[in-house]
User: Which sequence fits this backbone?
């Protein structure tokens, strides 16, 4: 999905340079909400104001929404067939694997994390147990555990900056 | 399945999605466990099968994966209209459910994006912005793993349905370690299931 947006916005329309795109993408990712949707909203707003933002949003969602609703209607008509039930069970198992793997792929991203790899593992494991096993509400985990993590991250970043400045390395 | 929804329940549905909207850091899929907790376990508006179907179908379709939320809303609406037995008569309520779900999940986060994007653009080197990004990274990994886990746990115990667990494990390894296209894997899972092998 991101690859398509990048090709259209940077290479074809040239509304953004490559560097601008990367910056926008980073911002779209730290804000809550679907990042591709956030990105299209931000770019639409920057170049064409509020109408641009709304149009970008509508453009991003309308056709996929129609397609997915058509799929579910088609599916409903035949959902009692054992083959269809089986196919869905198989696709559900694949979807579970896809999502887990997406999480595993991100592990490489925390290798550079200022908090250190061990602390990151601890937070990831804690979030997994709290949500996956104990079934705590998401808000508790994000505000509680996430809040502590952000606090630690803040301290770690400050420490690295101080060390870099003190050693004259920066 | 059939449920009855009072008009206040529709507001609860909207409210639940709106409350999750601002928590959806790292994509809408990280809020899936909380949706399962609320919609399936607590309110019983949705069956386990419908929940899984929503995620599987939206992964197979083009477009942003947050569309599974529209499908959750669709199923709640269809169930309120008398379930699948009602046929086309259930479509209007299904559509209403889908639109309410999308409105709820998008309105708070897009409003925030709209307001915050310019600010964050100017302050992208700011310590708080970087601390937030750094601190949340491991949490997002844990959330993705727990979503996969909750989907797997619904398949039944590993002893009874070891083939499904095996499929999930193989897919996890393939997606993690290779660049194989996800649609092929979904198609393969569908075929294996239709043939009754998993």
Assistant:
């Amino acid at each position: 999905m991101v690859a398509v947006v990048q090709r259209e916005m940077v290479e074809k329309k040239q509304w953004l340079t490559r560097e601008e795109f990367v910056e926008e993408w980073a911002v779209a990712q730290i804000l809550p909400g679907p990042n591709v949707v956030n990105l299209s909203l931000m770019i639409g707003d920057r170049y064409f104001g509020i109408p641009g933002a709304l149009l970008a949003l509508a453009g991003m969602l309308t056709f996929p929404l129609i397609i997915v609703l058509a799929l579910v209607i088609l599916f409903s008509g035949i959902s009692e067939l054992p083959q269809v039930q089986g196919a869905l069970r198989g696709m559900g198992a694949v979807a579970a694997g896809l999502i887990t793997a997406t999480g595993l792929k991100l592990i490489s991203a925390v290798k550079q994390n200022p908090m250190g790899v061990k602390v990151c593992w601890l937070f990831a494991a804690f979030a997994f147990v709290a949500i996956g096993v104990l079934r705590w509400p998401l808000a508790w985990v994000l505000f509680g555990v996430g809040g502590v993590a952000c606090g630690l991250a803040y301290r770690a970043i400050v420490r690295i900056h101080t060390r870099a400045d003190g050693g004259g390395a920066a | 399945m059939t449920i009855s929804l009072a008009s206040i329940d529709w507001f609860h549905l909207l409210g639940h999605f709106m409350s999750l909207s601002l928590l959806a850091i790292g994509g809408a899929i990280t809020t899936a466990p909380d949706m399962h907790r609320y919609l399936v376990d607590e309110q019983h508006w949705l069956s386990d099968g419908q929940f899984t179907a929503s995620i599987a179908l939206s992964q197979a379709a083009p477009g942003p994966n947050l569309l599974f939320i529209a499908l959750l809303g669709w199923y709640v609406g269809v169930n309120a209209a008398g379930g699948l037995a009602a046929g086309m008569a259930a479509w209007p309520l299904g559509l209403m459910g889908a639109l309410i779900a999308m409105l709820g999940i998008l309105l708070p986060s897009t409003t925030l994006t709209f307001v915050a994007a310019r600010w964050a653009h100017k302050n992208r080197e700011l310590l708080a912005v970087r601390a937030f990004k750094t601190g949340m990274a491991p949490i997002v990994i844990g959330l993705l793993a727990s979503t996969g886990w909750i989907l797997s746990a619904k398949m039944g115990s590993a002893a009874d349905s070891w083939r499904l667990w095996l499929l999930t494990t193989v897919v996890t390894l393939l997606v993690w370690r290779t660049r194989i296209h996800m649609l092929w894997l979904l198609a393969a899972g569908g075929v294996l299931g239709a043939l009754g092998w998993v």
In short: Chain A touches chain B through 97 residues (CB under 8 Å). The mean pLDDT of chain A is 82. The longest helix of chain A spans residues 35-78.
